[in-house]
Amino acid sequence: MEQDQKYGLQNILDKKTLKWIFVGGKGGVGKTTTSSSLATLLSKNGSKVLIISTDPAHNLCDCFDQKFNGKEPVPVNGLQNLYGMVQNIYIQTSLYVYIKEIDPKIDPESIKFPDFTGFQTDQASQTFMSEIISSVPGIDEAMSFSQLVNSLEKYDFDVIVFDTAPTGHTLRLLNFPSLLDKGIEKLLSLRQKFTGILGQLSGIVGNEQDQDQIFNKVFQNLEKMKKTVEKVNEQMKDPQKTTFVAVCIPEFLSMYETDRLVYQLAKYEIDISNIIINQVLFPNDTCKMCKARSKMQKKYIDQIIELYEDFHIQIVPLQENEVRGVQSLQSFCGLLLVKQTLPQIPQ
């Protein structure tokens, strides 16, 4: 394969069918800088773009030097067609809040359980709720992600760039559909398990609503959520609509994380064809430590190129200053497109 075909993100800019682009990797490798620059390139290419961070410890606001929120997309200052948003989909919510969302008329504070099987009221309530929550792994994140997808449908974005959390969180996000499948099956079994207990309880809700009705609504809402996530999963597996960009630095731990990410994405049938190798040193003759570090980096760069010979691989030099603000991002954008040769290590 020719070198100019392997390097750069031009293949992503040229693919007009893409709707979702996920950017991920190990923490601290430059995911936010890369995703922000890619979103900038897409917007300058004529697309209406949303960049959204799903990282609980996001740096998106710092990167653009601008405040974003989780309520609605905010136009990026100084750029046309680009909007920003932050959304922590990993915040855990209690089932009380979940029930409130299912039926606003229900006061979560009124959901109480009388004593049974030797437990005190609070203990019984907490035990029951905890077992339901723990029976559906990922229910909190899945519910948040489902709400996020639904809320974004009303906006007419051509492309959404996801600035994701570090690898472990991202893989959980991509695995929500299978988690929900297992969780709903467990919830069904729990429903049978607690049928007898629920029948004996009185005053479970203050408005005397049938106890089983709440449980039915919880399950119905989970089924609805499952359909939404399945729709998301279908789009994720379509390489014409979704792709993933891995960002790494030429060090062992980052390379290991990249290998794990590529393997899991293949397992989930999600397209990935681009790898950004960031923070690469191009040393001079006077810096002994820089030459030593560059020699180490080159070893890992060679391994990445050999392992992923069919990928578009882009080498990005380590920057003298932090990339912050639209002007800095626009300068960084060029580094994602030009062909970079491997650093030559002075003897």
Give a short synopsis of this structure:
With 347 residues, this protein is of the alpha/beta class. The protein is 48% helix and 13% strand. The protein has an eight-stranded mixed β-sheet, sandwiched between helices.
Low-pLDDT ranges = 1-6, 92-96, 111-127, 201-208
Please state the second-level CATH architecture of the largest domain.
Answer: 3-Layer(aba) Sandwich
Please indicate the percent range of residues in DSSP E strands (runs of 2 or more). Answer: 5-15%
Number of helical stretches of at least 4 residues:
13
CATH superfamily of the largest domain: P-loop containing nucleotide triphosphate hydrolases
| Mean residue pLDDT | 78
Structural features:
Rossmann fold; alpha/beta; 8 strands; globular; disordered N terminus; 2 domains; 48% helix; 347 residues; eight-stranded mixed beta sheet; 13 helices
Q: How would you describe the overall organization of this protein?
A:
The chain is of the alpha/beta class and 347 residues long. It has 2 domains: 3-90 and 241-336, 3-Layer(aba) Sandwich (Rossmann fold), CATH 3.40.50; 95-154 and 182-233, no CATH class. Helix content is 48%, strand content 13%. Helix 9 packs antiparallel against helix 10. The longest helix has 26 residues, at 211-236. It is globular.
Indicate the topology:
Elements lengths: L2 H4 L3 H5 L5 E6 L5 H14 L4 E5 L6 H5 L9 E2 L6 E5 L8 H8 L18 H15 L3 H14 L6 E5 L3 H8 L1 H25 L10 H26 L5 E7 L3 H16 L4 E9 L7 H20 L4 E6 L8 H8 L14
Parallel strand pairs: 1-5, 1-6, 2-4, 2-5, 6-7, 7-8
Antiparallel strand pairs: 3-4
Helix pairs in contact: 3-13, 7-10, 9-10
